[in-house]
Each structure stands twice: as structure tokens, then as C-alpha cells.
Amino acid sequence: MGASPCWRSRRRTSRPASFASRSSRARSAGGRPSCTSTRKTPSAADRGRTRCTSTSRSTSADGVVAGAPHPPHRRRTRSVERFIYICLGGAIGTGLRYLTGTLAVRWLGIDFPYGTLIVNVVGSFLIGLIQQVGLTSPLIPDTTRLFLTVGIMGGLTTYSSFSYETLRLAQTGAWGQAWANVLLTTALCLGVCFLGVGVGRAIVGARL
């Protein structure tokens, strides 16, 4: 049986008011519901700020961008500078070794290689101290550390002179002095180097 006209009328009029309002808005917009996007388009100023933020990096005083790798010409320049400093330090250390040996012969005599023993002991203490401070703290820059250790200490100390002078003592029959030179040089150099490392640790601990 077909539905009565009264029932169809009630079914049409029982639609919610919200649906009717949405339908009327859709019809007023040309029969299609309006789909307005809530996505905000960035303005030109926002894009400029984003670009500046993404490309800004901290730059040091010499124009090098922090975090960026050093260009090859800067690495070569630094290597050449370090080489020159090391050569200069070696010249200074060699001059100091010559003066120490000359004064040792004048004041202590030529019966024992006092000059070589002195420079090796002093150099062992200083290289232990400088290396410990330079490698464990920023107190000594790398170039300065190389200038002092590889340059000055490398020119000041001499294992070749120690070897020749010990052999020379043995050839002349002074075996006691030869063994004394070996034992004193080995024990004293190792001992004072260990002492220098300890002093370096104390300095770093007191400063940091």
C-alpha cells in the first residue's frame, strides 16, 4: 500500500534544521558546498625569515663559517706555518744544547758527558709537562705545543750524542762511566718525564 500524503509530508518536514541550513548555503554557492581551506599560505616576509634562519651560521673573526670544513688553501697555510715554527724551535733548541755542552765542559770537565745528560733530563721533564698540558686542556694551542716539543725539545735533547758518548767511554776502557751514563740517563729521563706529566695534571686540575 502506498504511504499517505500526510505521512510523506511529515517525513519531509522532519529533517533537521542544520541540514536545511547547509543545503541552503550550498544552493546559494551555486549548488556545491563551499570547501574553504584552513591552510595558511606563508607571506613573503615569513618566507624571508625562514630563508635567513636556515642559511644563517656563526662566523668567526677570520671569516670561517663555524662547523664548515677548512678549505684546502687554509690547511696548506697552517701546515706551512707549523713547519716554520718547528724549524725555528729546532734552531733555538740546538743553540741551547750547544751552550749547555760548552758550559758543562768548562765547569764540570770532560771526563763525563755532563752536558748531554743535563739537556736530556731537562728536555724529558719539559716535554712531559708540555704534552700533558697541551693535550688535555686548551691552555697551550697545538701550534705552540709543536713549537715547544718537536722544535725546541727536539733540538735540545739528543739520543744520538748519548749513544756515541757512551760507546766512546766503553772504547776507552771507562766501562764504569759508560754504564753510569746509561743508567743515569735512562732512569733520570724516565723519572723526570713522569714528574713532568704529574705537574701538568696538577696545573690542568687547578686551572679547569
Structural summary, described in words:
This protein is mainly α. It is 74% helix and 0% strand. It contains 8 helices and no strands. It is globular, with a radius of gyration of 42 Å. Mean pLDDT is 78; it is low at 1-14, 16-20, 28-38 and 50-66.
Radius of gyration: 42 Å
> Structural class from helices and strands?
mainly alpha
Shape: globular
**Helix proportion range:** over 70%
State the separation between the terminal residues, measured CA to CA. 99 Å
Helical region count?
8
Number of strands: 0
Average pLDDT confidence is: 78
Stretches where pLDDT falls below 50 for ≥5 residues?
1-14, 16-20, 28-38, 50-66
The major sheet is characterized as: none
Q: Roughly what fraction of the amino acids lie in strands?
A: under 5%
Element pattern in H and E:
HHHHHHHH
